[in-house]
Amino acid sequence: MKFQDKKPTFEGRDGVICEECEILKFFQPGELEEKFPAADGMDSIRVMALNLFGCERVKNQWYDRCKMHFYFSPQEWARRMGYVHPDELKAAAAGRTIGELAEWEQMKATCLKCKHSRWLDRWALQKRYGKGLTLSELGARLTCRCGKRGAEIGIGYMSR
To answer: 78 to each of 6, 90, 128, how far by Cα in Å?
Structure first.
């Protein structure tokens, strides 16, 4: 296992977790590699699981094997799994232009005051304002039926 990929997780310590055995253990940086050096084709985590906890699953490569791995904070797991926070998603969408939208993407405007929402005809808006208009600029130009100017623009996908 490459140790440059992991980061300290709790108060500057490195954590390892086995969700199967419900074990969570923290080490000072470098302590895991020092106490349990890799041997016999096993990385430091597997050697530690065998020596410290007596886990017999380490030896089994095919079924019911050891599931111990480095522990990451919930925020780090979310980042590694590709989760994007809704605020970041809205910020990324606001910087896009009408011309950058793919054929299958649609725009939905939501009024900032009354929360009324409506799907927009992107082709008519593109013809009227041009391809270079950003979605945040477009939202500022729209007027709702309640009379309030300004809307939040979201991006949706057409159904097949």
So the answer is: 15, 18, 40
